[in-house]
Amino acid sequence: MNIGITCYPTYGGSGVVASELGKALALKGHTIHFISYALPFRLNHFIENIVFHEVEMSNYPLFEFPLYSLALASKMVEVVKYEKLDLLHVHYAIPHATSAYLAKQMLKEETDIKVITTLHGTDITLVGLEPSFLPLVKFSIEQSDGVTAVSRFLKEKTLTNYNIEKDIEVIPNFIDTNLFKPCEKTCCTKRIAPKNEKLLVHTSNFRQVKRVADTIRILEKVKKEVPCKLLLIGDGPDRSECERLSRELGLYDDVKFLGKQEGLVEILNAADVFLIPSQSESFGLSALEAMSCGLPVVSSSVGGLPELVAHNECGYIAEIGDIDRMAKYVVDLLTNEKKYKLFSENARNRAVEKFEISKIVPMYEQYYEDILNK
User: Fold this and answer.
1) Over the stretch 5-45, which tens digit does the pLDDT of each residue have?
2) CA torsion sign, 324 to 325 to 328 to 333?
3) Any residues with CB less than 8 A from the CB of 17 and at least 6 apart, and which?
4) Are residues 14 and 138 both part of a single domain?
5) Do 213 and 96 share a domain, yes or no?
6) 177 contacts: CB under 8 Å, gap ≥ 6
7) pTM of the full predicted structure?
8) Fewer CB within 10 Å, N or C, the chain?
9) Are residues 155 and 27 located together in one domain of the fold?
């Protein structure tokens, strides 16, 4: 197949999934055309069947704001026509599904290009519920030829929030378990934890919805029982507040702000427990990456996390903001070697058995075929 993929190219779950899906499809012989304003950050090496088409923005004095959604639609039309695409697969509803609909209408005299929209989370549960966007999101979803969601939770939220009757296929996020796998702890562990302290880890874009400050409060409580430190990977608007909180609690030397990192596998393998206390999480890709490396997960009981983290098997789930319970769960894992080993093995096995990339990519291929043959 000849497939166009549009996603946000920056750090974030939707861009990661779209990029990894495109790479996997290309390696299976499909030709993938990424259409975006920048090269997705996960496309960091050459793959023969992948082509990147940059959406060029022009600055015209009359326009106060850049018209990205319109420029994207025009670029989609160009790529569909000249590369003879079979379908457009857009990730994240706004503005990608809207631009794809516009491109489809512009092309309807020449070809019936199929549009598949994958919903990832905040495009439905947060951004799309803004009064100025809600009608547009609802329209764009309903006008897509096919729609997928990354969890059952997100599917139900979409149907309910937007009063949509359209069929939505649930295709979960995935992981390359040959890349994200358990390995020996590296020398960096000794530098970070010279006294063999246990390491807690959290990865996110440091937005309010991720409740990153909760991980610092969890550390404060766990430290009273187990010597440990906290690794925070990522960056975003809440980072300064988290740095302030760690200083206020006297934990600044025990909280390592690592910023955005490419070497996730090495860092995850240096850690012992993954924390994800989010207020909203439609799937939890960062938790899946940790599980694939054999890390037990302590999470909040929101969104798609209960579909990912099997409570009392490969991790623990607590109510949002219940820092005491989350800390208790972490201590339980760190002080019971036999239980920790079992949870670690269960986490790895669940990632391999349920979310391995080789199991999920064929689901997308079959869905493409179904939509093309409608």
Assistant:
1) 999 887 667 888 999 999 999 999 999 999 999 988 778 78
2) negative
3) 7, 91, 118, 120, 150, 173, 174, 285
4) yes
5) no
6) 292, 348, 351, 352, 356, 357
7) 0.90
8) C
9) yes
